[in-house]
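Office hours follow-up: a student asked to see two folded examples consecutively, so here they are.
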Amino acid sequence: MDIESVLQEFAMQKILVVGDVMVDTYLSGNVNRISPEAPVPVVSIDQKEERPGGAANVALNIKTLGATPLLCSVIGKDESGKSLVRILKNHKISIAGLIHSTNRVTTVKTRIISRNHQMIRYDSETLSNLDNKAEEQLIKVVDATIIKEKPHALIFQDYNKGVLTPRGIDHIIGTCRRRQIFTAVDPKYSNFFSYKNVSLFKPNIRELRNGLNNEFTDLSESALSDIALFLKKRLPHEHMLITLSEHGIFYHGKKKKGIVSAHKRDVSDVSGAGDTVIAIATLSLISGLSLEQSAILSNLAGGLVCEHAGVVPVTKEMLSEAIKNIRP
């Protein structure tokens, strides 16, 4: 695999990301005492950082890998929404596809960190599905973006926050199929079986268990192949990748299947790894790599993310260096 040629192909791609965007906030400080009010540590905050999360992090990964991201979502008409807009602008990611709703709050995940250890996380979010008005607005802005920008692929990034609804999913997949646009999904359990006829179905092992309501433990190639065949009958799709955490990635296509083992890593934080994997896998497949090659590259990139604290994107330089280091 000539990584420089692959990255050149990435630079030619335009990817539309649709789904739940959020702000990942990090409050960092030191613990020097226990609270007199309750037996809990007191963190003296000395740094605050805000990063794009969820579908916005997928868009950022696409950007840092050299491709052009487009982003469609619904956020609140609130201060956190303004923060997300500012963050995206700073990363030179278009905000033209963002809809501001007074009926929702912008999702914010706030993590309190001390000495690179997460003490607690608290979330501010709306979990109900979009109302009819916002749903229709999102469908229209996605359609308009597809017509105007002509993306090479569309990624659904579903975090169960209600932006992706069964009606919206069905409409968007239909639009993409008519225009022969590659579709990929990183599903969650609520809409698990709504993503019929996508090009790439990429659940992680937890969401697969939740979606099937089956806590299976056999992660052999044979067992995963049986699950893949069962899913393809109920949920037609072209390619499947299942991320297996520390066990790597399982891939299943028309002609080949297998497991790509994970590389040994000093894992700091798994946050954002799924965002990176779906971005890399989509870019790889539409750039001409095989499913197996796409799995290898996605597995490598997902592992790189886990070495960093918090949600971070993979850059071209990180990926290129990692490929060089694993070559014999």
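And the second, which I mentioned at the end of office hours:
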Amino acid sequence: MPRSALIAENIFLRQQLNIYERQNKKPRLKNIDRVILVLLSKIFPKWKSNLQVAKPATLTGWSKKGFKLFWKWKCRSVGRPCINWDLIKLIRKMQKENPLWSAQRIQGELTMLSFNVCDNTVAKYMKNPKGTPDQRQRWKSFLHNHAPQIIGIDFLVVRTILFKAIYVYVAISHDRRKILHFGVTSKPSSQWAIQQLRETLAFDGTTKYIIRDNDQIYSEEFKACIKNFGLKDTPTTPGNPWQNPICERVNGTLRRDCLNHMIIFNEKHLYNILDEYVNEYYNPSRTHMSLGKDAPEHREVQAEGKIVSKPIIGGLHHIYSRVA
């Protein structure tokens, strides 16, 4: 055996002994160990029979990975240079504000703003949309343009102290997030739901659309009642509660702000709690981010007077106001 091969073998074996001598129950290889073993395997022809700390295929994998990393570093400056970050943010802003626009459409708009960039570059920096853009845009535009004429309806289930199910009907307007009507029953039926709809729309002359899910309680008679009011029935697609977001959101608010902190005894008890929460706190006082921190029923800003608080639902929430 040539002297150089003998030296390489000794170094190869000594490196593995160094790994085993570390104070660990199971020797852990560091990156420097991998580099040394890979380099020694290139000059020591019988390294496979002397390798003990790993399998030969593992060492070969380290070699391939190192080769890839080397050429990635070698070619790091090759390719099309990045464009200005401000331009990238502008491209993504246009894409977010106009989900229907293609890369070519955005590139054309950038050209009119004196940006010299090709459509392939625009496509490179566009984010992949989550879902079908045209569907999201149609639904978002529909909600935005017709919010004053939209009512969302839904049901939530509340359990009593004896685990009896009580159903709550909720109707909310989309423009001011105001709860227009709620009903409570332990025996829901289509006729009961129709009566709740009539009470919701009794003095309403602006509503044009009803958004609901596909619960079985919405019978053909219920759908016919919606048409008799001259409204457009807009059911959500199955398995997509996000299409009725305002009502789903208020159901969660009712639970988090009120019902999760109460022990319900019966229907009357539940109705009294919801009546106090909705009519004394939620509609007249509770602020909403979507309303610019205003309440569903417009709340005047008070600048003068002593600040006093009024407890609601046994002190679960408070209403703050100023008095002379």
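Two things to take away from it. The longest strand covers residues 150-159. The chain is about 45% helix and 15% strand.
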